[in-house]
């Protein structure tokens, strides 16, 4: 049988070895997706236990269950775990597992990065768990407001655990976001233009773009705060020119988009499951896509609504209030598209639908209270009270946990290959729904009565006892529901009959494979004509398994899959993916050792892991590529395509574009911080401006021009077949580093004033990027010498050119931002 | 809820209006959801009616009205200068509130833990902090405002009648946060004069 022969051949190429060796070297997206989800669920349970402890403490007035110190750690860790270690990794894991299958491809664009992201997440999350077990958990709130989180008021290591651990996890989130964006844009089945993409992929595209723009401000804030804590650079210390409000702006620039980053993937699951449950197609596909994109943009315009009480002028508040209420409109579009879909079809009350109804009830209530707190005068009352605690749980539990539970039941057969049999899920649903509302409904009222957030005790005579006791009882009912859900799912893995393929008769490609799926997903890649390929061609799954699509015959032991035109979905080239390797775990371990050394305050040792990282990144890139042109190769159906090594914009080039997008946001946030402090912080202008001499300015700007032109000269020489000549760009970058270093030497001491500290960070940023560009250009020269580059195999040069342009551009902006105010003063 | 001053009353009226609106919208969505299971869909549903009508026009109209209402009320709650405005400086620290009144002769009267205000007159509370961020909140009188290092924020409060109200710190400020509270004593005219004279405290 042909399908079986193909299965064996592909499994030999794509499979993972058994045992611990396979565990540490696997780069397979299904394996890694499941690992992320299991780990995230474990963190959900841990965060849930912390919530139970919080509710136990608040059940009665004057409770002596835990003291204020332990309570501070409880609520800080509950929030941090649920946001950073549960919600984000959970949907990332789901997307990593599911997206390639929905898009009709065999793996992610950067399999080794997927693995690196998972190891970083595991190590960073473990750091926070160790802190908790040692009783040293962060205790300044998940929002880490300065100056409470600064050295004078949090002298212990607790806050450092948060800043370093969360930054480590964020790095994992950023690389995973790049991975997901490029996969969605490039790695689809041929024919799948953007407007034929499954809606879930649209949601994930917008979500990950938002992550690339939303996470850098928090990473910047964490780095600045850690610099202040470790070395006394006063970014947030008002007595030395800092301002604690800068932290709030950076935190909420991340924090509000974060809410939508968590909600959108879940809404994507709703848009996928709901039409299948209603046995119809989704109503208003284009409207939903438009609404999701609008949400992505709008969500960056409302961070200030977390800061309505910090003393911002009322007209500015009015603007953010308007933006905050308007964001309800795209949400409304989705809600009505879903309702209309249910009206158009014949909905069936299966398990996923049950949880979707829970989602509707809870999430709509959360959305309505969200509009309430967007109204400024009402927010002045509700802000930082239990009302907001209730609101955010309605939004996040309703908008994320309920859809994820629906998704769990909907896609369960995909993971287990078994039919859903038991009815425990129904009891679990009612326990969860009732428990949740008992916990949080009357919390709205007690909040308006004056119960502030984050208090560990309250007086008996104030009259909040009954509200809080009911909340605590509800919380424990909810916990029983979650426990029952877990038992139900586990039973499913061990005791259920085999399921038939595509049990819901869905139309999307992830159901067109055996369940559980093989390591390579599909034995051949389909040509997609519509949004629901399995409905268009009921025999598609079998035909693909027989190798009748593209790339249906294994070749050279390569892990091959196809890349398409970004929007058109036209066949573009063959991507040959790297196989299993232990590089990701080693790189993550070295990254982790850097954070560990920072945590232990062994700063003088930190250059070691940084050098090791350079060496590993070098090896990471060196392993790819080929020394000869192979030209276009046949891919079946009498068509052929070149490999990614011989095209102008391979996935690696796109990955650089999106990584630089995140990097650029980081840079813009830094410039925003500089401008913010200059205009808002009380102790400005600084006593003394930068006086580094004009020589480094002139040299620096000249060097940037030399580097940019030199990179182009090198590129042209390669195109003409004259080899890579990197002399000019190398000289330009070395000069640039020299000029910037000169400026650093002439800069005033960063501990004296926030201005000095910002100047130092700006210069360090420019030097860092110039050094990266230099490394890349040296790499390219050596690669050319080793025969990896040719006129056709020129993508590495183009990638190095991107980074050189970025380094030169950012360095020029840094120099101007420092020199212009100093020279005009 | 249970407001004891004009700001709190305004906020309270917004709350009840919004609660009524929210309940109506919630019932509408719930009803549409339930009805979808009762009727038998025949696949002919107008995307325009549902999405443009329900998802676009309906929320836009409701939200614009709400926004205008909130803006007008918000303007009314802002501190504006007037002849009878009383100014008090509230200095917060971990974990204590101290209130400073400037008397007509320029001397300062400080009261730790208790804020004295006259009934029926607008009071501007100037918020400062000695250490971390705190927030001043008297739930029955008005909304809240943060006290931020290096900044001076002003919150307008007003109490209708003499009495005593609890006040708390709303921004997490460390392990003493839950006990970082104060009292507001509202005086009638005679009591206020006695307080300023240094007798009533």
UniProtKB/TrEMBL annotation, chain A:
It catalyses: 4 Fe(II)-[cytochrome c] + O2 + 8 H(+)(in) = 4 Fe(III)-[cytochrome c] + 2 H2O + 4 H(+)(out). Residues 8-529 form the Cytochrome oxidase subunit I profile domain. It is found in: Cell membrane. Belongs to the heme-copper respiratory oxidase family. Its main location: membrane. Pathway: Energy metabolism; oxidative phosphorylation. PROSITE patterns: COX1, COX1_CUB. InterPro entries: Cyt_c_oxase-like_su1_dom, Cyt_c_oxase-like_su1_sf, Cyt_C_Oxase_1, Cyt_c_Oxase_su1_BS, Cyt_c_oxidase_su1_bac, Cyt_c_oxidase_su3-like_sf, Cyt_c_oxidase_su3_a-hlx. It comes from the Bacteria. Keywords: Cell membrane, Copper, Electron transport, Heme, Iron, Membrane, Metal-binding, Respiratory chain, Translocase, Transmembrane, Transmembrane helix, Transport. Its EC number is 7.1.1.9. The keyword Transit peptide does not apply. It is a multi-pass membrane protein. The chain crosses the membrane at residues 36-54, 74-97, 118-141, 161-187, 199-225, 259-278, 285-304, 316-341, 353-378, 390-412, 424-449, 469-491, 574-596, 602-621, 657-681, 693-714, 726-745, 757-782, 803-822. The keyword S-adenosyl-L-methionine does not apply. It is an enzyme of class 7 (translocase). This is cytochrome-c oxidase.
């Amino acid at each position: 049988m042909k399908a079986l022969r193909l299965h064996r051949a592909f499994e030999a190429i794509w499979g993972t070895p058994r045992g611990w060796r396979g565990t540490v070297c696997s780069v397979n997206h299904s394996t890694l997706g499941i690992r992320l989800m299991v780990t995230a669920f474990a963190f959900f349970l841990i965060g849930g236990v912390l919530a139970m402890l919080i509710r136990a403490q608040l059940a009665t007035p004057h409770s002596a269950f835990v003291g204020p110190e332990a309570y501070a750690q409880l609520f800080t860790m509950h929030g941090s775990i649920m946001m950073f270690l549960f919600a984000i990794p959970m949907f990332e894991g789901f997307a990593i597992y599911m997206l390639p299958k929905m898009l009709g491809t065999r793996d992610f664009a950067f399999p080794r990065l997927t693995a690196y992201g998972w190891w970083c997440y595991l190590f960073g999350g473990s750091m926070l768990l160790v802190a908790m077990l040692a009783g040293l958990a962060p205790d300044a709130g998940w929002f880490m407001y300065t100056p409470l989180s600064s050295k004078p008021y949090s002298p212990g290591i607790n806050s450092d655990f948060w800043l370093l651990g969360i930054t480590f996890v964020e790095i994992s989130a950023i690389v995973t976001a790049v991975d997901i964006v490029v996969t969605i844009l490039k790695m689809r089945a041929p024919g799948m233009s953007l407007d034929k993409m499954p809606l879930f992929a649209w949601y994930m595209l917008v979500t990950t773009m938002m992550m690339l723009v939303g996470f850098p401000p928090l990473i910047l804030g964490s780095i600045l705060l850690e610099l202040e804590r470790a070395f006394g650079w006063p970014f947030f210390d008002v007595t030395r020119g800092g301002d604690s409000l800068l932290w709030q702006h950076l935190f909420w620039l991340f924090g509000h988009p974060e809410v939508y980053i968590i909600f959108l993937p879940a809404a994507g699951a709703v848009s996928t499951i709901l039409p299948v449950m209603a046995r119809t197609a989704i109503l208003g596909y284009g409207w939903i896509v438009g609404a999701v994109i609008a949400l992505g943009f709008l969500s960056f315009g409302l961070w200030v609504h977390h800061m309505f009480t910090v003393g911002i002028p009322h007209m500015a508040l009015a603007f953010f209030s308007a933006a905050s209420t308007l964001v309800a409109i795209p949400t409304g579009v989705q809600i009505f598209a879903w309702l209309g879909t249910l009206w158009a079809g014949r909905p069936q009350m299966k398990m996923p639908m049950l949880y979707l109804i829970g989602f509707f009830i809870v999430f709509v209530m959360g959305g309505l209270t969200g509009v309430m707190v967007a109204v400024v005068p009402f927010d002045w009352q509700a802000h930082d009270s239990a009302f907001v605690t209730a609101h955010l749980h309605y939004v996040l539990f309703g908008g994320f946990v309920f859809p994820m539970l629906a998704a769990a039941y909907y896609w369960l057969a995909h993971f287990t290959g078994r039919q859903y049999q038991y009815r425990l899920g129904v009891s679990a649903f009612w326990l969860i729904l009732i428990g949740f509302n008992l916990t949080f409904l009357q919390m709205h009222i007690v909040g308006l009565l004056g119960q502030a957030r984050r208090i560990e005790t309250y007086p008996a005579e104030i009259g909040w006892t009954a509200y809080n006791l009911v909340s605590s009882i509800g919380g424990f009912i909810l916990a029983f529901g979650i426990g029952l859900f877990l038992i139900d799912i586990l039973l499913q893995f061990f005791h259920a009959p085999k399921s038939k393929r595509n049990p819901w008769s869905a139309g999307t490609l992830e159901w067109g494979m055996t369940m559980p799926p093989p390591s390579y997903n599909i034995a051949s890649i389909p040509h997609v004509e519509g949004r629901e390929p399995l409905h268009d061609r009921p025999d598609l799954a079998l035909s693909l398994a027989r190798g009748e699509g593209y790339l249906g015959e294994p070749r050279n032991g390569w892990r091959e899959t196809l890349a398409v035109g970004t929007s058109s979905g036209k066949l573009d080239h063959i991507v040959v993916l790297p196989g299993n390797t232990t590089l990701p775990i080693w790189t993550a371990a070295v990254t982790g050792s850097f954070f560990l050394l920072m945590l232990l305050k062994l700063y003088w040792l930190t250059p070691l892991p940084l050098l090791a990282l350079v060496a590993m990144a070098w090896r990471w890139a060196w392993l790819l590529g080929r020394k000869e042109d192979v030209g276009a190769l046949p891919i079946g159906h009498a068509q052929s395509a070149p490999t990614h090594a011989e095209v102008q914009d391979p996935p690696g080039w796109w990955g650089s574009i999106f990584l630089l997008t995140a990097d650029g946001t980081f840079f813009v946030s830094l410039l925003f911080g500089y401008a913010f402090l200059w205009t808002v912080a009380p102790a400005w202008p600084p006593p003394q401006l930068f006086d580094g001499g004009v020589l480094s300015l002139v040299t620096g700007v000249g060097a940037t021009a030399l580097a940019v032109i030199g990179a182009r000269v090198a590129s042209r020489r390669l195109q003409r077949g004259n080899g890579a000549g990197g002399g000019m760009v190398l000289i330009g970058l070395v000069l640039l580093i020299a000029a910037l270093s000169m400026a650093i030497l002439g800069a005033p001491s960063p501990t004296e004033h926030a201005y000095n500290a910002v100047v130092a960070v700006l210069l360090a940023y420019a030097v860092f990027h110039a050094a990266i560009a230099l490394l890349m250009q040296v790499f390219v020269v050596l690669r050319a010498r080793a025969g990896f580059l040719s006129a056709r195999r020129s993508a590495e040069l183009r990638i190095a050119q991107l980074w050189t342009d970025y380094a030169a551009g950012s360095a020029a902006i840094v120099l101007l931002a420092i020199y212009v105010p100093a020279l005009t003063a | 809820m249970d407001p004891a001053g004009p700001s709190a009353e305004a906020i309270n009226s917004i709350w009840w209006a919004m609660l009524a609106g929210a309940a109506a919208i919630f019932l509408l969505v719930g009803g549409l959801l339930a009805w979808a299971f009762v009727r038998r869909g025949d696949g002919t549903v107008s995307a325009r009616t549902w999405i443009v009508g329900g998802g676009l026009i309906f929320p836009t109209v409701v939200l614009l009205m709400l926004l205008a209402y909130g803006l007008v009320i918000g303007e009314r709650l802002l501190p504006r200068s007037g002849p009878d405005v009383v100014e008090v400086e509230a200095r917060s620290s971990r974990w204590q509130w101290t209130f400073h009144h400037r008397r007509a002769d320029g001397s300062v009267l400080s009261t730790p833990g208790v804020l004295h205000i006259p009934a029926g007159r607008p009071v501007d509370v100037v918020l400062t902090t000695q250490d971390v961020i705190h927030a001043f909140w008297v739930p029955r009188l008005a909304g809240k405002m943060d006290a931020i290092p290096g900044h001076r924020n002003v919150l307008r409060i007003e109490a209708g009648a003499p009495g005593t109200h609890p006040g708390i710190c709303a921004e997490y400020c460390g392990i003493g946060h839950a006990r970082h509270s104060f009292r507001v004593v509202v005086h009638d005219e005679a009591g206020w004069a006695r307080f300023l004279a240094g007798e009533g405290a």
